[in-house]
Design goal:
- The complex is a heterodimer of chains A (about 350) and B (about 575).
- Chain A has about 350 residues and is mainly α.
- Chain A has 15 helices and five strands.
- Chain A has a two-stranded antiparallel sheet.
- In chain A, helix 3 packs across helix 5, helix 6 packs across helix 8 and helix 7 packs across helix 8.
- The longest helix of chain A has about 35 residues.
- The radius of gyration of chain A is 27 Å and the shape is globular.
- With about 575 residues, chain B is an alpha/beta fold.
- Chain B folds into four domains: about 180 residues, P-loop containing nucleotide triphosphate hydrolases (Rossmann fold), CATH 3.40.50.300; about 80 residues, no CATH class; about 170 residues, P-loop containing nucleotide triphosphate hydrolases (Rossmann fold); about 70 residues, no CATH class.
- Chain B is built from 23 helices and 20 strands.
- The radius of gyration of chain B is 26 Å and the shape is globular.
- The two termini of chain B are about 30 Å apart.
- Chains A and B meet through helix 9, helix 10, strand 3, helix 15 and strand 4 of A and strand 1, strand 2, strand 4, helix 12 and helix 16 of B.
- Strand 3 of chain A pairs parallel with strand 2 of chain B.
- Chain B: It is found in: Cell membrane.
- Chain B: It is a peripheral membrane protein.
- Chain B: It comes from Okibacterium fritillariae.
Chain lengths: ~350, ~575
Amino acid sequence: MTVTTPKTVPDAPDRKRSLLSRLPIVHQVRQSMGIQRFMLVAGLVVTGLFILTALLAPVIAPYGYSQLRGDDGAFGSQQAPSADHLFGTTVGGYDVLSRTIWGAQTALSVVIVAVILSIFVGVFLGLVSGYFGGWLDRVLVVVCDAIYAFPTLLLAIVMSIAISGGQSSLWGGVFAAAISITVVFIPQYFRVIRAETVRIKSEAYVESAKVVGASNARIIFRHVLRNATRTLPLIFTLNASEAILTLAGLGFLGFGIEPTSAAEWGFDLNKAIVDVSSGVWWTALPPGIAIVLAVLGVTLVGESLNDLADPRLRGRRRVAAASGTVAATSVVPGGAQTAGPAGLGGLESGETFGDDGIETRP
Amino acid sequence: MSAVTTPGADASTTRPAAVLTIEQLDVSFSTDAGAVKAVDRVSLSVAPGEVLAIVGESGSGKTVTAKTILGLLPETATAGGAVILARRDGSDSHDILSLDRKGLREVRGRDVSMVFQEPSTSLNPVYTVGWQIAEGIRAHNKVSKKEARQQAIEILGKVGIPDPSTRVDYYPHQFSGGQKQRVVIAMALVLNPGLIVADEPTTALDVTVQAEILDLLRRCRDEFGAAIVLITHNMGVVADLADRVAVMYQGELVEEAPVRELFAAPKADYTRKLLESVPRIGQRVHGSAEERAKKESLETAETLVEASGLRIEYPGRLGRGSFTAVDGVSFQIRAGEVLGLVGESGSGKTTIGRAIAGLTQVTGGSLTVLGTEMNGVKERHFKKTRQDIGFVFQDPASSFNPLLTIADCVAEPLRIHRRSLGERETRKKVGELLEAVQLPKAFGARYPHELSGGQRQRASLARALALDPKLLIADEPTSALDVSVQARVLELFAEIQREFGFAALFISHDLAVVDLLADRIGVLYHGELVEEGTSEQILTAPRNDYTRTLLASLPVPDPDAQAAKRTRNR
C-alpha cells in the first residue's frame, strides 16, 4: 500500500461545537452517561428548584415570613395543616409553608455573599503565596492551618456575635453568617489555588514567559491564574452546601436571624424541638427537608462535576470493536521542506489529544 | 520460520508453533470525540526464541497492540479478532481476548510478561526488589517464602546484578536506572515465560546503559529462549536486537520483513521514508568550502557567551551538602556559531542552558552573557538583555499556555518588548514568523493542543525568533518528537539559523542530532566538560575515553554495521 496519499478520514463530529453545547453545565450533561448523568441531572433539578423558589418567594409564598395574622384574624399557634395553612402554623403563629419558602431566599443570599467574599481573597492570596513563596508563603500557610484547627461552627459563632453585635436584621444576619463562613472558606480556596500555582509555576510555558522577560504581574494574571482556576467550580459547589449547613447550624443554636427580619430554616427547627415530642410533626419536617434537599442538590452537582472533570472517573459508552476511524496521527516523513507551507496541511494537520491521550483528527 | 509442515500433521507435536499469533486484531477506544480506532486488522505471529520489533511513530498503535497481548487494555477499549498465546512447551493455548480475569491472571507472568518503559515507576518503592520478585513466583507456584527468595537471588544474579544475595533486600531507590531495568527484566524472566513484551525498554535510559540492557535482552533470547516482542521507535535498537520487524502506521501493519531485508530493501514507501529520516553520525559531510569559510569568519566574530570555571550548585536539603550540577566548565559561543552540548541525563547540560537564560542561579566562576555577568546578577539588570535571547523548550506540549492561541503565544514577546508596534503590526509580524517556520498563517488561530508535536515545536521556534535574538538556546528541542518529525524540525532549524545568523546553544543527548547542526561540540560528563572541539574532530577522532564510550554505545541503524560494531566493542 502506498502511504503518501493520506487516508481519507470521514469527517468526525465538528471540532467547533455549537455554542449551546459549550456552555459549562450543558456540556457536562451531554458528556455524562448512566448513573453519573442521573446524579448530575437530579442535582441540577433540585438546585434549580431551590434557586427558583428563592427568587420567586414573594410570588409563591402564600403569606409573608413575619406575618402573624391574615384577613380573618390571627393564624393561631400550632394549627394543624389545613386549606388555609398547607403545612400548619408554628408555635409562634407563623405559616410554616411561607417561612420554608422565604427561607430559601435567605439561604441563597448567604451562599452568594459568602462565596463571593471568600473566592476573591482566597484566590488572590493563593496566587501570590504560591508564586512568590518565601516567608509570606510560610506565614500564610501556618495561618490557614491554624484556622483549620478551629471547629467551624465555634468560629462562626464568635464571628457572628462580633459582627452583628447582638442586633438582628436581614442583611446584618446574612452578612454575619456569610462573613463567619468566609473566614473558614478562605483557607480552602487558598490551599487549592496555591497548590495549582506551585505546580504551574514550574511548567515550561511559565518559564518561557520568564525567559521572554514578562513582569511578575503579567505572568501571574495572564499565564498562571487562568490555568489555576480549573478546580474552582467544584470547591464552589461543595462550599455552597457547607454554607447552607453552617447557616442552619447558627440559626439552630440561636445565633441566626430573628423571625421578624427574615425566615431562616435553622431557627424554625430550633423552635420546633418542643413540638416534636408533643405530636406536632408539621413544624419540624418542612424546614428540615428543605435543608436536606438544598444541600443534597448542590452536593450532587459538585460531586458529578468532580467526576466528569476527571477523564479517569468519567464513564463512557463502550464502542463496537470495528467502529470508529483510525486516528490519523502519524506523519508522512519528508516532503514538507519542498512542499512549503501550503503542503503542510495535508501532511500533518489538526491532531488533537483526546482526554485519555489518544490523538484524534477530526 | 520456513519449516514446511506436511498437511494433516500436527505441528505442535513436532515443534512448538508460534508462541503468539495475532489475527485480524481491531482495537477501538471510546473517547469524548466518538469512537477512535487504534489498531486496524493487524495480523502477526512470533516464533519461539524470536525477537519481533514493532516499529512506528507515536499513535501508530504499537503500544496498544502490545498491551492487548497481556490483556491490559483500559475499560474504554473494545477489541476484536484473536490473540492466541501458546504455553512455552506448546501444551496449551488461550485466546487472550476471550479469557476472564482469572484466566488472564494465570497467563500473565507464566506465559507472557512485560518490561515497561520507565524502570523507576514500574517498581514499587516501599518493597524490596526481592519481595517484588517473590510476589510473582508465589502468585503462580506454591513455594515457601524461603524458596521464592532463593529463586529471586538466582534470577538477580543471572541478569547481572552484582552480589545478589545482599542486594535482594535492597529497595528500588538503591539501584541505578540501568540496574532497576535489570530488576524489571528479572521479574519478567523469573517464571520463565515463552514471551516477553518489552515496551520501549531503553527509551528512559542513557545511551551507554542502553547498550548494556540491549545485551541483556539478547541474552534473554539466547540463554532463556524467550521470544521477545520489542516495541520501539529507535531504529538503532531495532537494528541491534530484532530478528524480524513489523512497521505500523496509523493502526495498520505497513510492512513485515526480516531485519536485514527491511533495512536493505524496504518495500513500503513509508518504511523507506522512515529509514531516511533517522539521523546517523557521518551524515553531514564535513570539510566543505562553505564550512571552512564559516569557520574562518567565526574566529573573528565577537564573543556572545563566555564561561570560565562556571560552577552551579543546587542547595541541598537541611543538613546535607549542596549538589554540584556543573563544575568548572569553560567555553565560548561566538556570534553566529552553533555550539552543541552533549551528555547523559544528570550531566548538567540543561543546567548550563538555563543558567545562560537566567533561569538558574550561577554560584561560582564567571558566566558572561551578552555583556552581563550572570554570577550574582539581579533580575532588574538582566531584563533588558532578555530580548536578545530566545529559548526553545524540550517538551512542545507544555511550553505553550494551553488557554492562549498560537498567535497570542508567539506575540507575547512582542507585546512585552515592542509595545510601540500596535495590534495590527504585531499580528502582521506573527504571521511572518509563522511563515518563516513553515506554518500556515491560519494556524495562529488554533490552540496549542490542536497542533501536532512537530508543529508546536515549530511554533515554539517562531516565538523564540520573535525579537530577532542574537542567541538562541535550544534544550533538547527534538527529543519529544518522532523521528520523521525530528528530521524536519532539524532541517528547518539549520535553515533558519543560516538565514537569521543567530548564535545557538544546542543541547541534546543524541550525538547524531548534534552532528547535523553544530559547528563545535562540547561533551559533558558529571558536570564537567570532558572534551570540546569541532564536530569533525569529536566524531572522528575523540580524545577522551568517555566520548569514545558514548560513540561506541550509539546503536547504528544498520543491522550488519551494528553487528560488526558489537563484536568489535566486545
